[in-house]
Amino acid sequence: MLIHSASQLLTLSGGPQRGRALGNLGIIPNGAVVWQDEQIVAVGESEALRHAFPDEPQMDAGGKVVMPGFVDPHTHAIWAGDRSAEFEMRLQGKSYMEIMAAGGGIFSTVRATRTSSLESIVRQTRVRLWNMFNYGTTTAEIKTGYGLSTATELRMLQALLALDKEGPLEIVPTFLGAHAIAPEYEGQPDVYTDLICNTMLTVLQQWWPHNAPYHAMPFVDVFCETGAFTLEQSRRILTTAREMGFPLKIHADEFDNLGGASLAAELEAASADHLVKTSAEDIAALGRSDTVAVALPCTPFGLGEAEYTPAQAILEADGLLAIATDCNPGTAWCESMQFPLALACRYMRLTPAQAIAAATINAAAAIQRADRLGSLEPGKQADLLILSVDDYRHLGYRFGSNLVQTVIKKGHIYPV
Ligand code: NIG
Ligand code: FE
Question: Does the CB atom of residue 139 touch ligand 1 within 6 A?
């Protein structure tokens, strides 16, 4: 298949973009892209490629932008129920962590998820995944963390594997048994930490190859935060996971600076995420590492807070910056990558080009898939978007409506 006559073909070629190099879109004016089966075989100027591939079926992009599909590298998109009542409580003055400390927050969703059948969780989640896909997300990382027992966490992974198999959205699963101290272990965080290290991870390591033989190992993530897991507990969980061969992620500095970002850099985690209260020292550690800093601007927005990830400092320190939705029922029920992009332009002062690179090639790096996803280059998977606009800067500039017209996933075409 050949798509031609793109006003701007955004290739994002050349790999993940560090620091001030962020924002190189690799634009080909009047561009074209050719793929065979699931793989891109050529990108270039329209007339040249039409000449070189005369037998390929052709599709006219109609003078619109063609770009890689968005990669959403941080979501909690699988859950049951909703927390609209807590949203109202927050508007009346209760804080997110106060609600959680009183047994609500993450625990409300844990109760709803534990008591739902696998079929019901799959059904509720499927709706969100189609929304994400229609807004241009072709691959999403999705975390467990609303089970918090061995059996219920595995059930969430089972649901994710079933949804990935169904497609078309490609799912990269993460085990987040360390999302909160399970209610059964209230007041005994070290006992729950032991359970994760000694039981959950061991069971998962055995379970995974039987249930997901064609998938890479899932990520292991920890919510390192006052009221969740301390730095020491996070270190124990992540070090154990690393020794067992799991790739790592961390939730750090959403509300408090505990040093989680430096821990991520030290343990060579794929990413450190949230990073609102991150110290200069932690930013410097990230800048020296290959750990991707994932900003989640929907979260402060969703909580009505004024402080966002210090993106400029991260870029100044030569860090790798990505953007994600954090799609979850508590802080940020946002299914579209176009919205965090618009927030990042305003509150993190990224240009549209920087935000696009952070949401594609760098987002792919945050889930260790930059070899296969996030750019339009020969050899990469044919995951691309045709927008309804002719200038990429409409992304970021506009918000609240969908600028994606067609989604192409593994070479299959889905009109929106
Ligand atoms: O990334 N901070 C922890 N986890 C989510 C929120 C999950 C929830 O509230 O259900 C986050 O913001
Ligand atoms: Fe999160």
Answer: no
Please compute the mean of the pLDDT values over residues 160-164 and round it to a whole number. 98
Atom in ligand 1 nearest the alpha carbon of residue 254:
2
Whether the domain at 2-68+373-415 and the domain at 70-366 fall into the same CATH topology? no
The candidate with the shortest Cα–Cα distance to 393, out of 76, 65, 47, 50, is 65
**CATH architecture, domain defined by 70-366:** Alpha-Beta Barrel (3.20)
Using pLDDT thresholds of 50, 70 and 90, give the confidence band for residue 351: very high
The verdict on the CB of residue 329 being under 6 Å from ligand 1 is: yes
Domain assignments of the chain as residue spans, ordered by start:
2-68+373-415, 70-366
C-alpha distances out from residue 415 to 72, 122, 227, 384, 386, Å = 20, 24, 44, 12, 9
- Burial (Cβ within 10 Å: 0-12, 13-18, ≥19) of residue 74: buried
Å from CA of 144 to ligand 1 middle:
11
β-pair type (39-45, 58-60): unpaired
Among 95, 109, 328, the mutation site with the greatest number of ligand 1 atoms within 8 A of its Cβ is: 328
Q: What is the pLDDT of residue 297?
A: 98
Helix 150-166 / helix 118-134 crossing angle, nearest 10 deg: 50
2-68+373-415 folds as: Urease, subunit C; domain 1 (2.30.40)
- Interval 290-309: pLDDT, tens: 999 999 999 999 999 999 99
255 with 277: CB under 8 angstroms? yes
pTM (2 d.p.): 0.98
- What is the tens place of the pLDDT at every residue in 207-245? 999 999 999 999 999 999 999 999 999 999 999 999 999
Q: Which of 136, 211, 222 is nearest to 179 (CA)?
A: 222
Specify the residue for token string 């019901």: 120
Question: Cα-Cα-Cα-Cα dihedral of 166, 270, 38, 413, to 10°?
Answer: 60
The answer to whether the CB of 221 is under 6 A from ligand 1 is no
Residue that the structure tokens 């821990």 belong to: 263
- Joined together, the tokens standing for residue 363 give 């987002």
